[in-house]
Design brief:
- The protein has about 140 residues and is an all-alpha fold.
- It has one domain.
- The protein has four helices and no strands.
- About 25% of the residues are buried.
Length: about 140
């Protein structure tokens, strides 16, 4: 890889990280509000958080990170397909952590959380989602 290509990739990764942080904040804040404050289930709160993060992600990745002007419908379809695959991966990781590890017994009394284990699992599984989703979008959606 040339220095110019390496620099472009590094800048792209940094921008993707900024968008990832904003998506993470949107997803976690929405998840917390919907799950903890409104009392909806983990799955419903997770879906709502991810859908709002998805909309934010597509707009910013298309216009700022990958700067594509390719077919909008094609990219949106590929982006949604990648989201579905990576989201299912994230849900699988969440399920495994919540149902097959001791993480589900964690209690943190000093934090204002109804379900601390679910919030912790959400953070862990988001890392898996983010890494898989970057690879998918870099090499498939916005190539």
């Amino acid at each position: 890889m040339s220095k110019a290509a390496a620099k472009k990739t590094t800048i792209q990764l940094l921008k993707y990280g900024v968008i990832g942080i904003s998506n993470t904040l949107i997803t976690l804040i929405v998840f917390y509000i919907v799950n903890t404050i409104l009392g909806f289930s983990y799955v419903i709160a997770n879906i709502i958080g991810y859908v709002l993060g998805l909309a934010n992600s597509f707009i910013w990745n298309r216009t700022w990170v990958f700067k594509t002007k390719n077919n909008l419908l094609r990219e949106a379809c590929l982006f949604c397909a990648g989201f579905a695959v990576c989201y299912l991966l994230q849900l699988g990781v969440s399920y495994l952590l919540l149902h097959h590890t001791a993480i589900s017994t964690i209690e943190i009394s000093w934090l204002p959380m109804k379900n601390p284990a679910e919030n912790i699992v959400m953070c862990i599984s988001m890392v898996v989602y983010t890494l898989a989703n970057y690879c998918y979008n870099r090499f498939i959606t916005f190539k």
